[in-house]
Amino acid sequence: MEETKRQKFQRLAEARTNRIIEQLDILGNLSNRSNYEYTPEEVNKIFRSIERALRRVERQFEDPNDFTL
Predict the structure, then answer these.
(1) Is residue 27 part of a domain?
(2) DSSP secondary structure, 3-58, as one string
């Protein structure tokens, strides 16, 4: 049986979401100050970048025709 568009979305959305969460966990490993040194400004830059990307993707779901990167 051929996969429907909905089934394909669900399969890919779950896999991609899980992959993003795993990568965020890996990013979180950098918070270990016994292994890494960083400034609050560097941390803020990381999270501002992530938040911008997240807002951009969220807007794409609000307006699927807006697929700007």
Answers:
(1) no
(2) PPHHHHHHHHHHHHHHHHHHHHHHHHGGG-TTT----HHHHHHHHHHHHHHHHHHH
Q: Is residue 65 part of a domain?
A: yes
How many structural domains is the chain composed of?
1
Q: How many CB atoms lie within 10 A of CB 56?
A: 13
Question: Whole-model pTM?
Answer: 0.82
Q: Residues 6 or more apart from 11 whose CB is under 8 A from it?
A: 3
Residue 53 sits in which domain range? 38-69
Q: Is residue 19 part of a domain?
A: no
CA atoms of 24 and 59, how far apart (whole Å): 21
Residue 68 scores a pLDDT above 90? no
